[in-house]
């Protein structure tokens, strides 16, 4: 039986995207170079190419979101476009993203900007990326240069998306390329030096924003996969949770909010992380179909940083069957309602993703509320877009959809 969940007053209700995944032809970024690197070719089923061509079609995308009733839209600005060469800032690209902010506001969508969603300029990557001696200062310089985009009309900024995943990618890259670096010293796959650099970069961005746009509420988003212990793995599970995740959560203490990004859970045994059980229902990414993950993640983060407001900046499922997407999301939102009922300060929910997009190597995992034709770029909204978006207008959403395993 379905039941209605009333959204709290002022609750953020939106969808999220990332520039590299939807814009297309982001040719000055490190990830574009990785896609075309022969050494890494085996890791990419697809190249990003034109992606969803949202660089040109963003007005249509925003029209659809606003039309369905969403009140908020989280999107990222691309550092590689704004600063394609060291110290050379593009006024045209700054104006482009400023137009997106103004376009969102005109449509009744409150924009949340992400300053860094995985990709960086190729020149930045080639000089050492986040491990370069001046990486933190360079990121701060970029934030300051991008100020015309967000000083008016933007109330929330996410500095860095999933820094824990960035730290993990750093270790993976060292292992693949054989680059110099003490991989063994990483904390269960999270490169220690990159971790510390990202925390410093986040705090630098918060400091810059505090000076040039003090009205903006700042935070960063962390990928949260709760650890479920299997067969005597308590010690290793606790160690993984402490070393590989919690440091990023605790770094948000003192911020205006922290973003929680939740999709599934992780099984942990005595030897570490285990594969998803064969019998478990799975999504197109191979992750377990497990709607309670969001509620668990919210409780975990609230315990780690009590008093820091939480925004769900990503939650969704890679699925071709949209009824299964609605079922999963309904279960996830049930967990969020439970967290709110337990007194956890959750301020908003952004679904991942607004569009079927480029999922970092493949177009097969479809997370979107809106399908995108890979040749014509025609947008086709799914029933989930109407169901989820209606909550923005009604300030309530129907839950309790039967689970589809």
Uncertain regions spanning at least 5 consecutive residues:
181-187
Mean pLDDT: 92
Number of helices: 14
Strand line-up in the sheet with most strands: 2-3-4-5-6-8-11-12
CATH architecture: Alpha-Beta Barrel
What does this protein structure show overall?
This protein has one domain: Alpha-Beta Barrel (TIM Barrel), CATH 3.20.20.80. By secondary structure, the protein is an alpha/beta fold. Helix 9 (163-177) packs antiparallel against helix 10 (192-212). It has an 8-stranded parallel beta barrel with strand order 2-3-4-5-6-8-11-12, surrounded by 8 helices. 40% of the residues lie in helices and 18% in strands. It contains 14 helices and 15 strands.
Describe this protein with a few key phrases.
405 residues; alpha/beta; TIM Barrel; 3-stranded mixed β-sheet; 18% strand; globular
Short description:
By secondary structure, the protein is of the alpha/beta class. It is built from 14 helices and 15 strands. Strands 2-3-4-5-6-8-11-12 form an 8-stranded parallel barrel, surrounded by 8 helices. Strands 7-9-10 form a 3-stranded mixed sheet, covered by helices on one side.
How is the secondary structure organized here?
Elements: E1 3-6, E2 12-16, H1 19-22, H2 30-35, H3 54-68, E3 72-76, H4 79-82, H5 91-106, E4 110-116, H6 122-126, H7 135-145, H8 147-150, E5 156-161, H9 163-177, H10 192-212, E6 217-223, E7 227-229, H11 234-250, E8 258-262, E9 266-269, E10 272-274, H12 293-304, E11 310-315, H13 322-341, E12 346-352, E13 370-372, E14 379-381, H14 383-394, E15 396-399
Parallel strand pairs: 2-3, 2-12, 3-4, 4-5, 5-6, 6-8, 7-9, 8-11, 11-12
Antiparallel strand pairs: 1-15, 9-10, 13-14
Helix pairs in contact: 3-14, 7-10, 9-10, 12-13, 13-14
């Amino acid at each position: 039986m379905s039941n209605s969940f009333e959204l709290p007053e002022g609750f953020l209700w939106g969808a999220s995207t990332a520039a590299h995944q939807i814009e297309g032809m982001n040719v000055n970024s490190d990830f574009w170079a990785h896609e075309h690197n022969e050494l890494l070719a085996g890791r990419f089923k697809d190249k990003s190419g034109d992606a969803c061509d949202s660089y040109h079609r963003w007005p249509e995308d925003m029209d659809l979101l606003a039309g369905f009733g969403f009140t908020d839209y989280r999107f990222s600005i691309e550092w590689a476009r704004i600063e394609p060469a060291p110290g050379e800032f593009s006024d045209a690209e700054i104006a482009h993203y400023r137009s997106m902010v103004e376009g969102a506001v005109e449509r009744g969508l409150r924009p949340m900007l992400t300053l860094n969603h995985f990709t960086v300029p190729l020149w930045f990557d080639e000089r050492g990326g986040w491990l370069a001696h001046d990486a933190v200062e360079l990121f701060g310089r970029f934030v300051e240069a991008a100020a015309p985009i967000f000083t008016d009309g933007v109330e929330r900024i996410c500095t860095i998306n999933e820094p824990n995943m960035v730290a993990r990618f750093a270790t993976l890259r060292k292992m693949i390329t054989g680059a110099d670096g003490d991989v063994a010293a990483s904390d269960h796959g999270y490169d220690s030096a990159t971790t510390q650099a990202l925390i410093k970069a986040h705090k630098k961005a918060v400091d810059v924003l505090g000076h040039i746009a003090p009205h903006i509420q700042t935070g960063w988003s962390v990928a949260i996969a709760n650890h479920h212990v299997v067969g005597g793995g308590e010690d290793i599970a606790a160690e993984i949770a402490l070393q590989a995740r919690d440091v990023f959560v605790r770094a948000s203490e003192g911020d205006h909010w922290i973003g929680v990004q939740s999709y599934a859970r992780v099984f942990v045994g005595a030897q570490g992380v285990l594969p998803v059980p064969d019998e478990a229902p799975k999504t197109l990414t191979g992750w377990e179909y497990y709607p309670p993950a969001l509620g668990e993640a919210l409780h975990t983060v609230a315990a780690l940083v009590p008093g820091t407001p939480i925004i769900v900046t990503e939650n969704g499922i890679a699925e071709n069957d949209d009824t299964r997407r609605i079922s999963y999301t309904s279960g996830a939102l049930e967990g969020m309602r439970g967290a709110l009922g337990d007194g956890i300060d959750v301020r908003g929910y952004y679904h991942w993703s607004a569009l079927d997009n480029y999922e970092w190597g493949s177009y097969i995992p479809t997370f979107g509320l809106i399908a995108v034709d890979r040749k014509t770029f025609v947008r086709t909204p799914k029933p989930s877009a109407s169901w989820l978006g209606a909550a923005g207008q009604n300030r309530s959403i129907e839950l309790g959809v039967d689970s589809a395993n």
